[in-house]
Write a structure and sequence with these properties.
The protein has about 80 residues and is of the alpha+beta class. The chain contains 2 helices and 4 strands; from the N terminus they run ββββαα. InterPro entries: LIM-SH3_domain_protein, Znf_LIM.
Amino acid sequence: MNPQCARCGKVVYPTEKVNCLDKYWHKGCFHCEVCKMALNMNNYKGYEKKPYCNALLLEGLEGYWDQYVPSGLMQPSLLE
């Protein structure tokens, strides 16, 4: 049986599967929680099993982070 996508809940078939953060995703569903940028295995950071983009880290978008991410989550610069 094929797994369900962590974002949309639909079945993920092998040809469209991304296995990341201990979950399965459709390639199109694996995007940043904040800015919705499409992600891949080379340009994401994970926090609490959710994907975030490196752009938040590299560009220092602290105001953007504060605006769109629920309080209590760590700033992007602290993600590993």
